[in-house]
What does this fold into?
Amino acid sequence: MRTGPEWPPPGLLGSARTEEEQATTSVRRDGTEEPQPARPAQGGKGPSVLGRLTGAFRRRRPESAPSGPAWAGFPLIQVTGEVVAGTETRVEVGVVPGEPGVATGAPPGNQAAGPGAAPASPAAPAAPYSGEPFDLDVQLVAEGFEAPGGWRVRLRVDPATPYPRTAVRMVALPQEQPVTARQIQAVHSVRGQVTGFGVRALAVVGAPGMLPQEGDAQPVAGTRVRTGSDADPPDVTAVVVHGDQPGRLWWTYHSPHFLTPDRAEVCELGTRISEFGRHLAEQAGSLDDMGRRIAARIPRGFWELLHAVAARVAPRRPNVLIVSQETHVPWELAALEHPFDPSVPPFLNCQAVTGRWPLGGRRPELPPPARAAGRSMAVVYGGAEPHPLTGAYGAARINPVLSEVLALLSQPTDMVHFTAGGSAAEALGRGMGGAPFVFLEEPDDCQAFLLAGASAVVAPLWPVGDDGLPQEFYRRCLAGEPPAEVLRSLRCQAPATATAYRFFGHPSLTLSPGGPPA
It folds into this structure.
């Protein structure tokens, strides 16, 4: 049995705050001002990231999952398209009914209006909601702005207000350029589980009237906001979004165990993100060296939360979901400086059960599915010899030619195994039927499969050859183990090859071989 560090981890936190002090954290339902100013954290040194941000995590009270009929909307980020630097503006955030582009980007008709102000253009009629009330948290990330009342608001969804909204006060910081492109990003979560995302572009100008009026209204891009999954939320969810400068990322954290800081932490890679990933492969002398380089770029707040959660959920391992706009950095290979389980390799994806999920567009939706069917399998391979999966699981053989792969992807096959991905890339533009679980034996673009409709994807970061891992993987997954946990344990048993495999999906996802997922 492993043991975890005491909370707080030694040397990481400053003095703990009292429960009364902790209750002053900037989470409000009505958008009113909090007692302390806030802005996305720009780094800096101090005894604790938590001390610089909110002082300490506050333990969450247990909350039940939303029950009743399904509920969904689209992120609301309503603000004028031209914001003057140094002045305060009001940003309406929340949820609207309908699909993207419905009254989500039009500027408010009255900047002095309160939280209940109506959008300038008509929205789709609000669908009734008859389920149990639940709290919806909206976390804002906006580089180049201050939020005097805090970066997170809590809204109540109930039958009386199925699509709540509120106003957030924001101030654009002074800038050197007369016009600067900015963006406001909103992460929606329920009980610590990320359930939606929106982003709104705007311009910050040095003086009023510098942009034409017709350029004001900008649409909100992102995914639908939903109630969440029936499965327990991940112990730690890190949301990684692009900053306004190349090589800059912003990290925010969500957990059902602690109320996390409301201010984003900056991550400076020092070069363009795609170049950073390439340089890792070229410059790292070993996997351990690569792990240390990656870990050095992850903000300290993530490590503090991870250690706190690991201590709280012990003896089981924490599960971690990284929801990210970037796809080039293998954050899962970060090496913990102080592993909470010294008996296994120090990499994050060995210490914890990890999954990843892309962020930004309408697909794939949030949160990742926590269940997938595992009744039927197809394997795409060439050659005359039968593939081991055809005999072990009755997998249908598909030749790696475009016409056959197109036919395969259009059918609701539960699990699709590719020995080579060349023909798949051409077919993905047509979509995938049935939300299959996908396993790739060669490096490929996992995000493309998820955008096409896959429920989860496994793929190696580098070529591993015929290592026999897939057979053991399926044996354990179809016996009930979560794929993310199977990969974690295999990495510890055979680090030379299994460490290469990444998992894109919910860390608690399971395959259901006996029938449709619950």
